[in-house]
Amino acid sequence: MAFLPVPQDRMIQFKELLGLTGKHEKSLGKWADVFLPRGAELANRIEEFVRSRPQLRIILENQPLGKLNRNWSNWHTLIFTAGMGDEFMTHVWMSGQAHVIHNVDHRHVSLAYNLARAFMHEVAITGLPVTEQPQAITALDRAVDFSMLIETDAFVTFATQCELEVIQGISHQVRNPVSIIGGSARKLLKMHQGDDATREIAEVILSEAVRLERMAKNVNAYMDITQHQAMFHRAELSVLIARATEKILATSPVPASALKVFLSPEADVLSGDPLELCILFACLLENAFQYADQQNPNISVTSVPSTTKDGFAMITIINNGTSFDQDKMGQAFSPFHSSQPTATGFGLPMARVIASKYFGNITLAPLEGHGTRCVVTMPVYDAAKAEAAKSGQTEGPDA
Fold first, then answer.
1. How far is 349 from 334, CA to CA, in rounded Å?
2. Which of 145, 191, 215, 296 is least crowded, fewest Cβ atoms below 10 Å from its Cβ?
3. Which of 196, 229, 262 is the last residue of a domain?
4. Contact 355, 361 (CB under 8 A)
5. Which residues contact 298 (CB under 8 A, 6 or more apart)?
6. pLDDT digits 0-9 by tens, 221-241
7. 34 near 127, Cβ under 8 Å?
8. Higher pLDDT among residues 366 and 347, named by residue
9. Same domain assignment for residues 199 and 102
10. Sign of CA pseudo-dihedral 74, 76, 81, 83
11. Residue 134 falls inside a structural domain
12. pTM of this prediction?
């Protein structure tokens, strides 16, 4: 597959998280005459490290002679000449994707960057006045940290994209035969209305075909959510819950009166894509409705400002059904896993992917006695930040 473009907005957020400013880039340029002459030495040291490990030699074997050396030399040069702008970010981003293609163990990539960090510390200590060394080392550390963030993000994004394309291909290939199987099962049901044995077999085939078709659709929806960039817009939580509940009540035996909603005015407007957030709460509420006590269902949704993360809301969804088994936390958020025999196992994984896109999180825990608590942390909409974004600044939650 083709290389992915650099996600500029995310790179800017990385810079903000690291506190990397133009001041640091200018200071690095000030010391260019000390560091630039040592670029070849750094590149040779990294290449020697790669050659010393059999599992990394594939990089050298699958690249033109000297390319690895040139890549590191260019990385070093860009830091002290061009700063950490578009050219630098593109260089590191492409490198991260290339590591996926060459099946490089990402731990070794991180180690290589830390070798580069140690080398540049040595240069700073031996080549700069003592009074300038702390400032230089701080700026160098942030440059290396930024590089590692970009490279890791590129590695994970590209690897995930490759996996998703394989899954998407399988999903598309499955849907056609599943439709044919389902159609044939329906014909059998019409043709053998008086044959109980044949009808029983046809109903099983049709039921499984419908489940497979639903699973294929969920796989595509999961991939769409994963691939689309996060969009931070105003999203009223009360509206999201109302829309999600309306969809669930159309098929659930649990009455609408079982749901109680309590939303704090300070935590009723979230920041995110309303469509994706609606899917998130539909997935979580569907679980709450399914696992609530069917004889006396009791479900509640509360939203209050988070006490541990400024600028975030803490949304708690509680049902009074069977308590969640915390030993199965990993399985619960894994695709295809479900305790319901007819479910596809994509609800919770899809919800967590959406939450992560918007810097949020989801946790599940059993309640004392009976029931399950689901806690969602999501960013609250900031009108001032939205105005700043319209003026060309990046919008997103505070770090």
1. 6
2. 296
3. 229
4. yes
5. 258, 260, 292, 319, 320
6. 776 777 677 788 999 999 999
7. yes
8. 366
9. yes
10. positive
11. yes
12. 0.53
